[in-house]
Amino acid sequence: MLDDIDRRILRHFQADPSLSTAELAERCRISNGVCWRRIEKMQAAGIIQGQEAVIDWSAMGYAVEVSLRVTLDKTQPRAFDEFTDAARKVPEVIEIQTFLGRVDVRLSVIARDMAHYQQVYRDRILTLPHIADIEALMHIARVKRDEVLPV
User: What distance in Å separates the CA atoms of residue 69 and residue 72, rounded to the nearest whole number?
Assistant: First the structure.
């Protein structure tokens, strides 16, 4: 169970993951040793799973983002596993989410432009196994992107 000090560490860590342990300890008003041990404990418990760089895709030349809602042919016994295994191998697929309901899987796909998207869609997406239905939603704007947990 997390206490107030753990929550304070997580709030500051989420706000700026580049902080050193010493800087984080100072902001949390605790010693370096206490901060380090608590971070280690939260990592071992799977609460803190890592750090990652956030890269602006458009700055890297990817101007198109499409969300694909996929319904799978559930008459095939391994349809879900085979589809997700194959989708993981498509470099332009940056996220895979699964759902209960009419839609089974949502893929986030990025491309440099519409011609590149069309090529990815035709050559890599439509060749994925066990697709019964697919719907494309063109991304227009990201209104909110916040992966910070309110602790």
Answer: 10
Q: How far apart are CA 91 and CA 57, in angstroms?
A: 13
Q: 32: left (phi > 0), else alpha (psi -120 to 50), else beta?
A: alpha
pLDDT mean by block of 10 residues, the chain; 151 residues = 95 92 97 97 95 88 97 93 98 96 95 98 98 96 83 81
The model carries a pTM of: 0.80
Whole-angstrom distance, CA of residue 151 vs CA of residue 146: 14
Distances (CA, A) of 57 to 23, 43, 49, 66: 30, 29, 23, 13
Q: How far, in whole angstroms, is CA 40 from its chain's centroid?
A: 23
